Amino acid sequence: MSAEATDPGAPIRRRGRPRIDLRRLGRVALLGPVSRDRLPDAIGHVAEAHRGHHPDADLTVLHKAYVLAESSHRGQMRKSGEPYITHPLAVTLILAELGAETTTLTASLLHDTVEDTEVTLEQVREQFGEEVCYLVDGVTKLEKVDYGAAAEPETFRKMLVATGDDVRVMSIKLADRLHNMRTLGVMRPEKQARIAKVTRDVLIPLAERLGVQALKTELEDLVFAILHPEEYEHTRALIAAASPGSAASGDAGATATEDPLSTIAENVRAVLRDAGISAEVLIRPRHYVSVHRVRIKRGELRGTDFGRLLVLVGEDADCYGVLGELHTCFTPVISEFKDFIAAPKFNLYQSLHTAVVGPGGAVAEVLIRTHRMHKVAEAGVIALGNPDAADGVSAPQTAEPADGERADPTRPGWLSRLLAWQQSAPDPVTFWTTLRADLAEDREITVFRTDGGTLGLPAGASCVDAAYAQYGDEAHSCIGARVNGRLARLSTVLSDGDTVQLLLAEDATSGPSPEWLDHARTPAARIAITGWLGAHPQDPQGSYGSRPAGRRPDPQPMASAPSGSDRSADRAATVVVDRPDATVRLAGCCTPVPPDAVTGFTVRGGAVTVHRQECPAVARMQAAGRTPVAVGWGDAAACRVTLVAESFGRPRLLADLTEAIATADAAIIAATVEPPSEQRVRHTYTLQLPDAAGLPALMRAMRDVPGVYDVSRAQHPAAAV
């Protein structure tokens, strides 16, 4: 196998481009100004890479930025012994290779000047304009002298706020961190570990969310080498052992017997050629962390596990054409198929994923995408430039569109949510820990609001999270939700594509209970709930504010209910039992009424208890071997029934319910009302109806009372019989 994994010590570069000697560039940079008719040799590599993506780019501003950066950093050296100018040059080259536009490269060359030299932001603004000044300011660190231990988290907070207006700020930071990680070996081991952990917890998730896979994968390998050196060396040895001879890549220098992936690649090329589909088929080596994950998942690596096939085509429709040919001519592994073209990932990634079985049973994973999709998959938002302007450059966007949604794909929803909750983080420690927890969520779902809008939430989010995402602090008064049209608890976990309607109490003074924290997954919800609970300390009775905290209190009787025998007497007269002189009781657990399908069971003393056939007690007694008794309804129409009304608390609710019952000509025999729990109230009514046929209309009338969301027949646990 001749797969090339990313070497954590080597920069990303195009195939065929010679390795750049930064030490030589450093010496060139020290030679001073050059003639006006040519670019300095030190920036020539950047210009070459930039022109590869932007053939018509004006390099004058890059020349000007390089001259200022070189002169201001002159005399400064890195810990590795290289002239400091080699660092901004290397960062700029990384971005140029990924296709960043001229403004980003200009700011990248200058990104450390304000922080480490006498150059001021005002000078940058005067010479290069407001946009470059904004980017440079966005990546400039806050001084430890002013912020102490809070300098790092507050720097990231500042950087994220700037990224919200221009995502290129984070692009420069990611490239800056990549070059620093490449040269981290000169630092003490404990400092290497600290920087690697921050990179793992913050920068790598940000690179993933921004879709910059080229930076993310190399950062992962560099962190892997520092934090897990033994596993890293073991993985390096496995990759080296799988590489046949000195082959440079999986699609050259290897025979079919040496490299099963090359054999499958040749077969795929032949299939697509015969089908008339123009496509480029490459072997894409896995990087070290990817190989390590596959080994952990499978236990033992196969020959095809060191790389994947990458099929590049011209149009979206060709992707599905390739998929059809592969699934026709090879045996597909259906469980491996994923369509990220029809449903792109939240980081803009688009591709078709599948796996096919080749000769000898070898299984190869295949990625199918267009050339443009591949560029976006590698460079993410860097490849998109700044879509706010036709020429790819514009001033930072500071205002939201009128509809409150960002149409710009370089300003994703997760970033807007992050910016929203960070404003509420009370201190740097809370912000820093919450940021890491938020970035650890690597999957996103979309739920629909009933007004036609959408909410983007992390996977595993609940109705509590949706409430705070939609209403902010107004969600403190949320008392319930409907998910896909059905009433749901606030703890309900939402799925991708759900429709959610949040229900707010009319009483704006109510607030969340501590149990909400058990169901809140998003930082915005947790910070808001914690803040409210902190401002409303628990009283001696164990409640917060006006809302009970915890269990549902015991029900309080509104009127005394008659005893069980009395309750059954009037109703039992309508039941016909095939046993002369038998005492008949209607079960209180299910309160059967005509025309319910019913069955009976003989209990102690010879009495017959009548249950609705769907009553859980019927199944229990049949399982215990009890013999059912045939029962039916007589001619009498009157009946007594127990109904349970579930509602949200509000003034005059009890009066409106009793009025609806009276309007239906039903008499209230007994009633209980439980104290509110999370603004919900349960009413239980025992009613006498003149005609059982009127029961459905009565239940509909009770459901129509504002605030009532459900009315059902009582289903109490049956007593031992």
Can you put this structure into words, describing what you see?
The protein is an alpha+beta fold. It contains 27 helices and 24 strands. Strands 1, 2, 3, 4, 5 and 6 form a six-stranded mixed β-sheet that branches. Strands 8-7-11-9-10 form a five-stranded mixed β-sheet, with helices on one face. A hairpin with a 4-residue loop joins strand 7 and strand 8 (454-458). The N and C termini lie far apart (74 Å). Mean pLDDT is 79; it is low at 1-20, 22-39, 246-257, 387-408, 539-573 and 717-721.
Helix and strand layout, with pairings?
Blueprint: H1 22-29, H2 41-53, H3 60-73, H4 86-97, H5 102-109, H6 113-116, H7 121-128, H8 130-139, H9 144-147, H10 151-165, H11 168-182, H12 189-209, H13 213-227, H14 229-242, H15 260-274, E1 280-285, H16 288-298, E2 307-313, H17 316-329, E3 331-332, E4 338-339, E5 352-357, E6 363-370, H18 371-379, H19 381-384, H20 413-422, H21 428-439, E7 444-449, E8 454-458, H22 463-471, E9 478-483, E10 486-488, E11 499-504, H23 523-535, E12 543-544, E13 547-548, E14 556-559, H24 564-572, E15 575-577, E16 584-586, E17 598-602, E18 608-612, H25 616-623, E19 628-629, E20 631-633, E21 639-648, H26 653-663, E22 667-673, E23 680-689, H27 695-703, E24 708-713
Parallel strand pairs: 2-6, 7-11, 16-18
Antiparallel strand pairs: 1-2, 3-5, 4-5, 5-6, 7-8, 9-10, 9-11, 12-13, 14-22, 15-20, 17-18, 17-19, 21-23, 21-24, 22-23
Helix pairs in contact: 2-4, 3-5, 4-5, 4-11, 5-8, 7-8, 8-10, 8-11, 10-20, 11-12, 11-13, 12-13, 13-14, 14-16, 20-23
